[in-house]
Amino acid sequence: MEGVEGGLCPGVGQNGLKKKKKLSVNNDSDTESFFTASSNDSFVGFPSLADTLESHFSDVPKNFNVVHINAQSVPAHYTDMLANLDCKNIHAILVSESWLKPCLPSTSYSLPGFQLIRNDRVSGGGGGVAIYLRPQIPFSIVDMSAQPPPQNAGEHLFLEVNLNHVKILLGVYYSPSSRVNFFFR
Asked: Boundaries of CATH 3.60.10.10 in the chain?
């Protein structure tokens, strides 16, 4: 397609700005209609993840605000996480597919204003779950999946957090297969 710059996504340039497209309908026969796209020289910016999170959570600072990401490697996306997850109104970040291993220190993947609680997959690639939690929030670990996980079992980490004398169960679960026995113990 004409006018698409080399970027990570079709229609998005190297600078992250979305290229505008003009669409026109061509009806050359009675039976077929099709769309064509042509580009012009104008760009439209779109908000960053950090801006989006800030706008969603700025109106609810007194709530317990939680986000979930499937990181598919915290080490590979750590700089993106630093740039985009710095919202003062987020209290917990649940991470599936952390891809962290015991040999990787938590201090290497810390986010400012959060403590990192992990359940790393110790064998094989991928997997693992983690929770970034504000350090002023008291918690205890309720349950975590065995490592290495049994075949066809999910990975999880559950915390009990105490907010103003109210206990909340906070957890992250990752299912590596569509054939997971959710009730395996």
From this structure: 49-174
Contact 74, 114 (CB under 8 A): no
pLDDT confidence of residue 130: 96
C-alpha separations of 11 from 48, 99, 122, 171 in Å: 17, 30, 39, 37
CATH code for the part of the protein at 49-174:
3.60.10.10
Contact 100, 109 (CB under 8 A): yes
Reported as a single tens digit per residue, the pLDDT across 116-136 is: 999 999 888 888 999 999 999
Closest-CA residue to 21 (of 5, 37, 34): 37
